[in-house]
Write a structure and sequence with these properties.
Elements lengths: L2 H6 L5 H11 L19 H9 L6 H34 L13 H4 L2 H36 L1 H24 L8 H11 L2 H16 L5 H30 L2 H21 L7 H20 L4 H8 L16 H35 L4 H33 L11 H23 L3 H10 L6 H10 L7 H30 L6 H16 L22 E2 L2 E2 H4 L7 H16 L1
Antiparallel strand pairs: 1-2
């Protein structure tokens, strides 16, 4: 390289360098790719201070994840107990003559009929919550690309806190129709995006800070903290329930944690998204709005706006994308969708089955939830890194910034194989100790989710991170509707004759997912996302071309002008 070219090299920003590598596979500037080069200018000094004392800047998002997860974990058992109590009162009495929240003997509720009604009640709750969250999560993901991750995290945290306020009103009410608030809670939680959107916006935050080769490990740590908080939550909730004896005190504890989290986001959490990136995304949004205004009298415009599946268009890559990248995006999205729906639907079934067959009390189920989430945290924080290191040691392979690596594929396959094995063991467990061992063993399957999410973010340019995670959130919420719907109906239909049937269904579903992992292809190191070596036409200030020409009315001249500008920058 000539002296003039060397002097001209710094004219390329860090984002330009990243885009050149992603689109063309050029890794010559690998060392110039700063791990935290997309951080907002207002918080760069903060992150720099953390690095000087050898602290990872992602600690900020880890703290808010922990606060939120402890509060959410504390609600799982009380929520199920509340649903069981409401179902019990509906079963034994008429709603207009006796409050569905009045006390009943616990033994009277432990019958198959009440459990079947509870399962259906929880199914309606999750259906409402997940449907609304499916609509809102992609919008929140795209919004975070424009206004930043921090404001969107604040919106979600405030919505979840509001739903806890409704819980408190519900458990303290003697109105016979107060149980309807149970579904109002689900609606508010869903409209705010729920914990699924919170996690995915957190992953977008991490993506802004962490290089692709380290992303799976960091996603795993985030999930580990989430499950660690979920493990602590039931412990605190169980202790409060044991001492105070009422569900209301558990919800007061949850509200206090959510308020602390809101204060933390408002006063301490830095913004991770660079102002330039947010400004570019906002300009693109305004251009799209201008196009929409011109089409406001077109019927197709309104049909397009009503299409809740529009965000998943990003999963269908453009024609210039390499074929294995297209296939991987579809398969990885399918794997995460299936896993999320099945695991979410399995939780109520495991708890209801253990209460019915092994006569576990509310405190025992809280302790089980604590052990289960703690084992998931250990799987992500300990097992996943060890698995990755051992695989690298005995099967050397190249880590790269684009596409799925051999290590990613191996971790995903091991995770689904563990899920199949331990759910199969649950089907044949004849005592509570073997059942508990098998239930805890399914935690090893949890390493699939962060690995899949991390791999997906490496299949699109950085400008599409919020969109791809938002689309994934939509699919997760849809699966959170379908999965629990199927599994709760299976449990309700078979609880009187063969209550283990739902575990057979789960094991078969995970077996299908395991077979799908063999469709994921390893990406070749040094190769970009697109077929041509000269990928300048696919770059537009860090955006994927799919974003720009999604609407057929977009001006081709504008795209060509931006392509020429990027081409000139790269030529320098």
């Amino acid at each position: 390289m000539s002296t003039a070219e060397e002097n001209a090299q710094p004219l390329l920003s860090s984002e330009d360098l990243r885009n050149r590598r992603i689109f063309t596979g050029d890794t010559s500037q690998q060392e110039d790719y700063a791990e935290y080069d997309t951080v907002s200018e207002n918080t760069t000094s903060t992150f720099s201070r953390l690095r000087k004392v050898k602290l990872n800047p992602t600690i900020y998002i880890f703290i808010t994840t922990l606060l939120a997860s402890v509060a959410i974990g504390a609600s799982i058992s009380p929520l199920l107990n509340l649903g069981l109590t409401i179902a019990c009162r509906i079963h034994y009495t008429r709603v207009d003559s006796l409050s569905p929240l009045a006390d009943l003997d616990e033994e009277a509720c432990q019958i198959p009929e009440v459990h079947a009604l509870t399962s259906r009640l929880m199914m309606i709750y999750m259906l409402l919550q997940s449907s609304l969250s499916a609509i809102m999560s992609p919008k929140l993901g795209m919004l975070s690309d424009r206004i930043g991750r921090r404001p969107v995290l604040l919106i979600i945290a405030s919505g979840i806190a509001g739903s806890v306020v409704l819980y408190i009103i519900l458990v303290n009410s003697t109105n016979p129709h107060a149980y309807l608030l149970f579904f109002a809670v689900a609606a508010l939680d869903g409209l705010s995006g729920s914990f699924v959107a919170y996690l995915l916006i957190g992953q977008a935050y991490i993506t802004d800070l962490v290089a692709p080769v380290k992303r799976a490990h960091t996603f795993g740590l985030q999930r580990a903290l989430f499950f660690g908080g979920m493990a602590l939550g039931p412990v605190f909730g169980g202790m409060i329930l044991l001492k105070a004896g009422t569900l209301a005190n558990v919800f007061y504890f949850m509200l206090a944690l959510h308020l602390c989290n809101i204060v933390y986001i408002l006063t301490i959490l830095p913004e991770s998204l660079s102002p330039d990136h947010a400004r570019n995304m906002q300009e693109e949004h305004e251009r799209q709005q201008a196009i929409d205004r011109e089409a406001i009298h077109d019927t197709k415009y309104y049909l397009d706006k009503l299409n809740i599946f529009k965000p998943i268009r990003i999963l269908w890559a453009n024609s210039n994308t390499r074929s294995h990248i297209k296939k991987n995006i579809i398969v990885l999205s399918a794997l995460e969708t299936l896993f999320h729906g099945i695991e979410l639907g399995a939780i109520p079934n495991v708890l209801l089955y253990s209460e019915l067959v092994f006569h576990w009390s509310g405190i025992m189920t809280s302790m089980y939830l604590a052990l289960s989430t703690f084992s998931r945290a250990m799987a992500l924080a300990v097992v996943l890194p060890i698995l990755s290191k051992l695989y690298k040691k005995y099967v050397p392979h190249t880590e790269h910034e684009v596409g799925a690596t051999r290590g990613d594929i191996f971790s995903i396959r091991v995770a689904f194989l563990c899920s199949v094995s331990f759910y199969s063991l649950m089907c044949f467990a004849t005592n509570q100790y073997l059942f508990l061992l098998a239930a805890l063993g399914t935690s090893l399957g949890g390493i699939a989710s962060p690995t899949v999410s991390s791999a997906l973010t490496k299949h699109v340019p950085k400008g599409n991170t919020g969109q791809i995670l938002g689309a994934l959130s939509l699919l997760q919420n849809l699966s959170a509707v379908v999965g629990p719907l199927i599994l709760s109906n299976v449990y309700a239909s078979t609880v009187g004759s063969a209550p283990r049937t739902s575990f057979f269904v789960i094991a078969i579903s995970h077996s299908i997912s395991f077979l799908l992992t063999f469709l994921v292809s390893e990406h070749e190191a040094g190769v970009g996302l697109y077929v041509d070596d000269g990928q300048e036409d696919g770059i537009r200030d860090g955006f994927d071309q799919r974003e720009v020409i999604e609407n057929e009315d977009v001006s081709r001249d504008g795209i060509e002008m931006n392509s020429e500008r990027v081409h000139d920058a790269i030529q320098l």
